[in-house]
Amino acid sequence: MKPPPFGYSRPESVSEAVSTLASLGPDGKVLAGGQSLLPLLSMRLAAPHHLVDINRLRELSYVRVDDSHVHVGALARHADVLADLPARTAQPLLGQALRLVAHATIRNRGTTVGSIVHADPSGEMTAVLALLDGTVRVVGAAGERDVPAGDFFLGPLESSVQPGELAVRASFPTLPSRAGTAFVEVARRNGDYAVCGVGALVELGDDGEVVRARCAYLSVAATPLVLDLSGSMGADGDATAAAAAARSHVEPEADIHASAEYRRHLAGVLTERALRLAHHAARSRAAHSRTAARPR
Amino acid sequence: MTQEQMFDVRLEVNGATCDVRVPARRLLSDCLRHDLRLTGTHVGCEHGVCGACTVLVDGRAIRSCLMLAVSADGCAITSVEGLTNDDGTLSPVQQAFVDCHGLQCGFCTPGFLTTITAGLRDNPDPTEDEAREMIGGNLCRCTGYQNILKAVLRAAEIAADRAIPGAPSEPNVAQSGGEQ
Prior knowledge:
The structure holds two protein chains of two kinds.
Chain A: E1 7-9, H1 14-24, E2 28-31, H2 37-42, E3 50-53, E4 63-65, E5 69-73, H3 78-82, H4 85-90, H5 92-98, H6 104-107, H7 112-118, H8 124-131, E6 135-140, E7 143-148, H9 149-152, E8 153-155, E9 158-159, E10 166-173, E11 179-187, E12 194-204, E13 210-218, E14 225-228, H10 240-249, H11 260-293
Parallel strand pairs in A: 1-3, 2-3
Antiparallel strand pairs in A: 4-5, 5-10, 6-7, 6-10, 8-9, 11-12, 12-13, 13-14
Chain B: E1 6-13, E2 16-23, H1 28-35, E3 54-57, E4 60-63, E5 76-78, H2 92-99, H3 109-122, H4 128-134, H5 145-162
Parallel strand pairs in B: 1-5
Antiparallel strand pairs in B: 1-2, 3-4, 3-5
Helix pairs in contact in B: 2-5
């Protein structure tokens, strides 16, 4: 249960990190919070030749909100994002999901960007990025690129970050004024990997009708699965049909924790629960924005 | 790799500056136990599940088995050995574990003490649910969690009492642990 030997660098700047990673190519592996990587090393499931420790890159430890996005730097710990009130207000789904990411002790060290790059289909933040159509900025020797969530997750534990590249930030669109979100999951204990989890985003039109209803799913597919359920959501927030649609769409696999059939059942139950909560949140947010907009 | 490269690491452990020379793969937990002979930090699962190795790094509770010693260079670390008050008396959390019978075999205790110490700093007056959540990432296989839960709430009381200047120190045996 000890990691195998590896080389180690600890760059002091993003440019130094990128040039180190470029020179290492496929031999290099980025170490951020290490809350997924270190267990993999200790269990000898991974044996990278060289770790590039980015924990000195203070320039990446930010959480910033602008008009359209919440930007999370690669060294922002889950706990930092969760504690950031402007970020949670601009996009409530961040706080709703981060509460469910492992235990507080893990959130103190693990980074949000790191868990997205890790691309675990049971990770909450991968689902959040996918549901919100967020982007990840990746820097390499050739320059930087912004990868949309839809292109970012290639398979279980496989993202589109290439050898020699560093993911420097994730950007999550802020929540529109007539929209609401929710994140619910079932796990054996709080903080454990979810047997199934669902994030929901509901957007209302001017007359309070549902114009958009989307759900993202944990632990039921190889990559974060997003379903557009706009057509099957009732105007009053009734999500019974949407839950049935979700049950017929997901194709979960069985493992030691749950049968495929149980996961499918949970996907339906949690879809209904998440959509109802998100619809409720959208209604109160829309009412609030209407009050706020009224001339005095 | 014929000879592993070694790295000089400076840690401030429980207030004392410590210089160690370790390979990159040395876990912080092993550095504390083997290089610094601070065996109060216990190692259970070594992959971040049990919480026994929890220490405070720059004031935040983290799993020392999920951090490389070399990554901790320059950090201030508090292990269970550093929790006692400056005069050697027990901290509120330690005293509460005594009062409430919060430990039996003691293997998991260092991780609980450090986790709760940080948890009460963030939330000095937790509800029972919040106390339960606070210890949710730590495993105990013999005491049972009920007395540990009582100890969290008792520790909050002791800390609040001690914060009042001139208040009498807490009794040796608290009522909350009485129904054994």
